[in-house]
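Input record (one chain):
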Amino acid sequence: MYAASSSVSAPPRSLRPRPGAGGPYLDPARPAAPVLGAGRPRRPAGLGTQPLSGRIDLSGPQGAQLRTALASVHRICPEFAPVQVLRRSGRSVLLVGTTGRSTAVAKCLLDHSPAWAERYRHEIAAYRSFVRHRPPVRVPRLIAADPDNCTLVIERMPGRVAALQRHPVETPPRADIRAALGAICRLNAWRPPAGTFDAPLDYAARISRYHELGLLTDRDMGDLQKLLHGIAHAAGRQGMGQFCHGDALLANILLSPAGPVLVDWEHAGWYLPGYDLATLWSVLGDAPLARRQISQLAQAAGPGARDAFLVNLMLVLTREIRTYETAVQRSMHEVAPGPAQPGTAPSGEEQRLLLRRLHDDCQLARRAVRAAVGTR
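The corresponding structure, as predicted from the sequence alone:
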């Protein structure tokens, strides 16, 4: 169990939240009243747009889970006063509350399976390391943590989430993409002290696993292995390492006047160069200019960096395809057909359209990989 000293606690903040802000880590904001004749709002409302009610339902089986989660939080942060449940799933719960005069967010794991517990402990270790070694991007300050019970209490940051969905339905504004990309590039240029972070991704094992699942063809596996061998031969395994967030989605980036804030550090560590860029490229399907800029940044460091970006891109896109194929199958078997809302597509149809786009993107990346192999 670990409780941070007072110097680590979040200082009081007087920043006023922007109207219409949304997202799980945001300060409470009152939704703006609609204006007659106004156009379509810039982005849909999110969880953070609702004012904090101060009411938490602790009744029933779900209430028992919340009581257990709150007990874990109070063991490491007795001054935490819960106000509202921001996000809840079968695996975890996200609570917002106060610690003295500041606002904090508590993340508690409900499903203590080994894989999920490891992810939470990895994120706790990342926030601990940021206490001594601050990255060149804004991150929430650590208040308290308990890796044994997978409980984390961090500062609640002001701002609005760059995108509410993993794959945004509407293209985010260019300014938002530019701010997110700048933060990712600054983070990728950072080199934390040796031994602070490990390498979360075993590239050879991941390629073999996707091949066994039928997600990669024999030629795909051979081409990716050739690129990996070329990268290792050209610069060495450690020479090509780059520190990455590991899940650089727009949904994990908060935008504020003080600068972007990166949250959810469960996968942070050393990757081949361009992993974060490949992640961002994969979710910007309707932003060709941003994709072109990302590709240019990935290739600026030479052929080795280009090949590393292509390997990352193939693995990221294959993971997304696997995720959404499972989601489509689940929606076909579990969701009963019903009348669709006017002007909106059913979630299952949106998933199928996204899956088709991901397959097209993977074909594009596959051709680029084969072209890169041909130049070696």
